Amino acid sequence: MEELLSILEELHPEVDFETETGLVTNGIIDSFDIVTIISEIGDRFDVVVSAEYITPENFDSAETIYDMIQRIEEEE
Amino acid sequence: MKNFLKITISLLIGIAGLFLIQRIFLPKYTKDVVEGSFIEEYYDDKPDHDVVFIGDCEVYENFSPVELWQKYGINSYIRGSAQQLIWQSYYLLEDTLKYEKPKVVVFNVLSMKYNEPQNEAYNRMSIEGMRWSMSKVNNINASMMEDEHFVEYVFPLLRYHSRWNDLTSDDFTYIFDTPHESFKGYYMRIDEKAASNVPEGPALTDYNFGENSYYYLDKITKLCKDNDIELILIKAPSLYPYWYDQWDKQMVDYAKEHDLTYINFLELTDEIGIDFEHDTYDGGLHLNLSGAIKLSDYFGQYIIDNTAVTDRRGEAELSAKWDKVIAEYNQEIENQKKEYNITD
Amino acid sequence: MLFASYEFIGFVLVLFALYYLVPKRCQWPLLLIASYVFYFLANPWYLVFITVTSLTVYGCGLWMGKIAATQKEYLSKNKENLSKEDKKTYKNQMKQKKWRVLLLGLLFNLGILAVIKYTNFTIYNINSLLHIFGSKARIGFIDILMPMGISFYTFQALSYLIDTYRGTVEPEKNVFKFALFVSFFPQLVQGPISRFGDLSKTLYSKHKFDGKNVAFGFQRILYGYFKKLVVADRMLIAVKAIIAAPENYQGAYVFVGMIFYALELYADFTGGIDITIGIAQVLGIEVTENFRRPFFSKNIKEYWNRWHITMGTWFTEYIFYPISVCKPMLKFSKFSRKHFGDVIGKRMPVYLASFVVWFATGIWHGASWNFIVWGLGNFVVIMISQELEPLYRKFHNRFHVDGHTSYKAFCVIRTFLLMSALRTFDCYRDVPLTFRMFGTIFTNWNWHILWDGSLLSLGLSLYDYIILAVCVVILTSVSLAGRTGSVREKLLKKPYPVRFVIFYGLLVCIIIFGAYGIGFDASQFIYNQF
Question: If you ran DSSP here, which 8-state letter would residue C402 be given?
């Protein structure tokens, strides 16, 4: 989780990712950010997030992203 | 219940409003293009005419019912409109027969030359004034140009909506009723413009009238026969549009075949006494009042001599009505004299 | 049948009446019949294309569904005796199978689209190449029937296919229901491109007559016609005049044309979508919004999140993401970071994917270079603004302009002008000419035409310009009012007579000021020959 938060904060230092729950729905992160996040996740967690996982529900908060990573890890 | 009332009232207001707007936007034909109102005026006249003319401007500018009345006691009406196409004449006749059975119907054959719809504006002027009936519906369907829509005849506002920047005070003054512009369907002009060198018509590739034209001429003939009406085909003495000999022959043949009278007044101009120096107001296209009087005198005599039409000047009620028209007619002559600076 | 035709209005009104008269279970079949009739009336042959697409995609969907079901069953049956590794291999196997089905469906239907839309464009380009290399040989163009709305319904069908592959939607079992999803007539011609998961929620359900919903639907339809007939079609007259005579209309005219074209396109497209969504709403069906006040965007990226939204998401979800997060791309990302440095390297995948997306967006709009150049123009502008972002931030921090209304307004106007300028490509439909004409805005200094009456030569009278000005004010106010919630809901709070006057007035405005029909031309009535 810490790792993930650091990825996010690098991207948008001005956002409080621990409380924000509308990253996509409120338009805080855009498609470019999502791709950057995914490639960082690939680097640091060694998890491949394929396109079908990119949904607003999965990316709306740090928590949901973290859940998603764990789900993918479990499946693999 | 409350909702129902609300909706009903809104609908009523809405429809009434649109109706009012439509009335405002309809062209009133009170200035310049007065012919647009002729078709509608017929319904205000008592329908017991002995002679009814149908056709284009060659009837409504060349014959004067007032003259026919004054001189012969013939009670006649002209259901003419600008560039009235032959099926429009047919449907107007159908429409007329719903109200009355004249003894004689006179049809001017110039429109035989048009086999297809020609012009949206003239369609409007011929059809819009008709009362709604199947005749009008069929007339519209037969007349529409490619870019016209039936619904625009039902709701003419859809056709005339873009008049919003040409509306004049007349559109509001005559919102429900436009003043009469014709004298029993006659359009009077008293000014003169001599006909000088009317050109021969250019050679045509095909002189035969179209199938559609004949189809409706047959229908007119049949309608008259079925109703015991004498149909007289005429070609008015207008020099232009050019009336070809080949066309004339077809009409002569048609009349013979169907046992009808066909009179080509172009051949009788000398006998009638029409002088194209003075008897036309637009160089031979149409006669002015003096020409129309001469033609009416001649044709009235023919009708009295050859048809069942009789002199009705003895009928007091009818005479009284005509007297009113005659007064307006004379007034109009005075007005036009002033307008065109004519002194006798 | 165009939206703005008596036939269409009659068709829709009859459908509305039938829809609420037939038994509720017949409502969606009625819509299917109506949609096919609508398409049939346009051209009977179109039905062949849309049926083929519907059937193939439906079939592939079922097939993938079956594979998924087999997988589930197998896994639950052998829950105990399979190792984690085994499960993984099995899953991958099945995924491969599904992938092949998906590919089949995609290639087949994109193939149809490509052949129909791009054959002549390809021939054109081959001919140009032949010309460049001095050959006199030319390939003749082929007369291909282009089914109305094929780009839209193909994309809509394919989104279903990909969603089924991804498992985000359950495959539809009923072929007729699926056929309705592909052919639903209000959105057949110009979108929105609905997702199955969204549209199917309300498309097949039984709908009771709901007065408020129906009234709202009609209000939206009216507003749509207002935009289309009063604003768009009126502006179109001037736009056409300017485009038709590039040698006469240069400099400030081009600028006027550019602004008018942007507004015309907006009014026409959003108006059409309003009609679509309004019709669906009367039917009780919810269609995804396609616009969110795009002209209030502060930058191009935001603009593309608010203009033609369903197309944007389609490209993002089905092209941009798959390309930018696929394994080869991640490898490429690592590679480029090593060789170009961290900053640029990181962005390479995104840029590459964006390039593909914008090229595709361009060519999707139409098979010609002007659309491709337009698409890539958007790409360039977005990339530049992305790269300049740090610079902007510095600027903002230095001058503290960020929250200021005037600065926001500046951004909005800048974005509007930029987007309008890009649109001139699809206005003139000729790339070199567009560049030349655009150049004249700066070289031909003739701004006096804006006030010396020259604009009256474009086919619009002074009154028309006044109407347009009033309309722009109305559209802007409605948009502004919409920022804080549905305008119709707000109006609902007003007394009934007020609402009646507003919507009745709107109707009367459309009827009177709409630029439709045979313009009544008094001169036509002047008595000349007969």
Answer: T
Q: What is the pLDDT of residues C177-229, one digit of tens each?
A: 999 999 999 999 888 999 999 999 999 999 999 999 999 999 999 999 999 99
Give me the number of domains chain C comprises: 2
> What is chain C's mean pLDDT, rounded?
90
Among the residues of C188-251, which ranges form H helices? 196-203, 211-225, 233-244
Q: Which residues span the domain enclosing B218? A: 38-145+169-197+204-339
Q: Is C397 on the interface with A (CB under 8 A)?
A: no
What distance in Å separates the CA atoms of residue A41 and residue A65, rounded to the nearest whole number?
Answer: 10
Of C167, C302, C324, the CB nearest to A35: C324
The domain tally of chain A equals 1
Q: Which residues of C touch A10 (CB under 8 A)?
A: none
Contact A50 C349 (CB under 8 A): no
Q: Give CA–CA dist A51/C287, Å, rounded.
A: 25
Token pair belonging to C348: 């390479």
Tell me, what's the ipTM? 0.90
Encoding tokens for residue A51? 């396109």
**A43 Cα to chain C: minimum distance (Å):** 9
Band (pLDDT 50/70/90 cuts) for residue C521 is very low
One-letter-per-residue 3-state SS of C423-489: HHHHHHCCHHHHHHHHHHHHHCCCHHHHCCCHHHHHCCCHHHHHHHHHHHHHHHHHHHHHCCCCHHH
B/A touch flag: 3 or more CB pairs below 8 Å? no
Please give the residue of chain A at the shortest CA–CA distance from C167.
Answer: A52
Helix (H) or strand (E) holding B53: strand B51-55
* Domain-located, residue C349: yes
Q: Which residues of C touch B152 (CB under 8 A)?
A: 517-518
How many angstroms separate the CA atoms of B249 and B209, rounded? 11
> How large a percentage of chain C has pLDDT more than 90?
64
User: Do C352 and C204 fall within a single domain?
Assistant: no
**Does position C519 have pLDDT exceeding 70, yes or no?**
no
- Tens digits of residue pLDDT in C100-138: 999 999 999 999 999 999 998 999 999 999 988 888 888
